Amino acid sequence: MSRNALVGRRAVVTTGTARTASPARSKVYDHFGQAHYVMMEPHDQSVEVVEGEQVLLVRRKGDIFFGKKLEERRLSPN
User: Fold this and answer.
1) Which end of the chain is more exposed for a tag (fewer CB within 10 A), N or C?
2) How far is CA 28 from the centre of its chain?
3) Domain ranges of the chain
4) What tens digit of pLDDT does each residue of 18-67 get?
């Protein structure tokens, strides 16, 4: 499976706070239900995403994914 297939999926920050140039570890499930851990930065440079917050992965550059914060969701980091 290509890691590009994770773009367009929801992820939750599991460790750290994601900021521009300071990614946080995030958990995302592929279409098979397999969990993947990726490094994610916010798509919007003025936003921080803290542990437990959910994002929509909107693009990837190398090993870093970029996510748009989903305000209506806050999940447990586990």
Assistant:
1) C
2) 7
3) 3-74
4) 999 999 999 999 999 999 999 999 999 999 999 999 999 999 999 999 99
Q: In angstroms, rounded to a whole number, what is the distance separating the alpha carbons of residues 24 and 10?
A: 15
Residue 38: what residue type? V
Return the sign of the alpha-carbon dihedral for residues 13, 42, 68, 38: negative
The contacts of residue 60 (CB under 8 Å, 6+ apart) are: 3, 4, 6, 7, 66
Q: Which CATH number fits domain 3-74: 3.20.20.140, 3.30.460.40, 2.40.50.140, 3.40.50.12370?
A: 2.40.50.140
Nearby residues of 10 by Cβ (< 8 Å), 6 or more positions away: 28, 54, 55, 56, 57, 70, 73
